[in-house]
């Protein structure tokens, strides 16, 4: 039983170690997202589950690793207790009942690599928990990069050759009768030395020989023509992981070559509520609205890098692109201090521009996200919570340049913030887009709803500059069911894309409401991006 469980769990581990790398091939996923000919909308929506798929494979690896280790502990006892003198090549122990066999598995190559892999897997799993990712992202980042060590040990782990199979089944079938050993020992009638030995493969089996019952079939006896020969199994793990591992390594090499040239930072803008906007330029950089990039600043950290959603994409008329980042951790704090002359600055309505010599910054990407589909629906609902507005900022910037070339004909933009200062991050953008649509006689193209969960200082937003937003500012939190029912009523029998980037509470509520039916024949397709 232990051998069966260990082999079965090893097959499951091979499959999941193969699949867990595929969601990390970001260039491949970005290509599939952007190619409507290769992947349909349903297929592209499945790609949004890549992170969930990666986590599922990781959890499966952990579970079946524990099962695999437990089964091999049972195998160690079986190898020791079932020592067979007839088949010495199959024995892993030196003698029957060898107590040291329990420790032998940690000395051999499979056992030693297995112990190290379990330790590496334990570090990766514990550091991947939500609490550690939020409190100390550096620990998660560095321990997760131990996957390369894990795969190298995995390829060595299967080269031990502890389990073997028989190569000469025709010459020595299982349970056959060995005339050189067993037959002569079990003869009860003496025979002269010059008397020829009978061929019992064709002659009837004599009744005067005491031969065990399993060796006799239909009154005939199977004779072994040679000793059994055994050979170690060829490791199948190589077939499973070599392809995805090579694909991932080639992609990482491509990403390194693509991002080895630093970008040119054109401006840095300090926004209220510890938000920093970085605008930059890079040769031959192209991106679609909703995509994200990975920033790497060697002066902040030699190895650490972080993803940020593009809030401004390059177009045919301008090559500038930008990101908004919220200063919430060690990396963002050090990055802000390098970009700004003073880390503590008070900002008014207009952001403060800082001019200085900026550090080297490398950009890897762009990569795909679910928000790329927001322009491919006739009607879309974009729900943002706080800094979760960044994916939709690039969509709004794109619509500001021109909206007629896209399928989107109506956009519901809902933004929920705790304080009034947060709305000023993109207040100018919202006002410009609103005025542009009014001038083009399409005021119904975008429906802006701003919700303020805290009412302190609400009078500060009153002003002529943001007059278009003041009438759309609501107090409290949205009543999501009534809101979606009203949208469904105005868009009967249509498919509406729902996009959310914000707290998990809002995301779960919208996901539940999107899957529920309504009386207007409207179908909601839910898409989500997570902060973590």
TrEMBL record:
It is found in: Cell junction, Focal adhesion; Cell membrane; Cytoplasm; Endoplasmic reticulum membrane. GO terms for biological process: defense response; superoxide anion generation. Residues 258-373 form the FAD-binding FR-type domain. Pfam families: FAD_binding_8 (PF08022), Ferric_reduct (PF01794), NAD_binding_6 (PF08030). Its EC number is 1.6.3.1. It catalyses: NADPH + O2 + H(+) = H2O2 + NADP(+); NADPH + 2 O2 = 2 superoxide + NADP(+) + H(+). It is an enzyme of class 1 (oxidoreductase). The chain crosses the membrane at residues 12-32, 53-74, 102-127, 139-158. GO terms for molecular function: NAD(P)H oxidase H2O2-forming activity; superoxide-generating NAD(P)H oxidase activity. One of its GO terms (cellular component) is NADPH oxidase complex. Keywords: Cell junction, Cell membrane, Cytoplasm, Disulfide bond, Endoplasmic reticulum, Glycoprotein, Membrane, NADP, Nucleus, Oxidoreductase, Transmembrane, Transmembrane helix. It is a multi-pass membrane protein. NADPH oxidase that catalyzes predominantly the reduction of oxygen to H2O2. Can also catalyze to a smaller extent, the reduction of oxygen to superoxide. May function as an oxygen sensor regulating the KCNK3/TASK-1 potassium channel and HIF1A activity. May regulate insulin signaling cascade. May play a role in apoptosis, bone resorption and lipolysaccharide-mediated activation of NFKB. May produce superoxide in the nucleus and play a role in regulating gene expression upon cell stimulation. This is NADPH oxidase 4. It comes from Circaetus pectoralis.
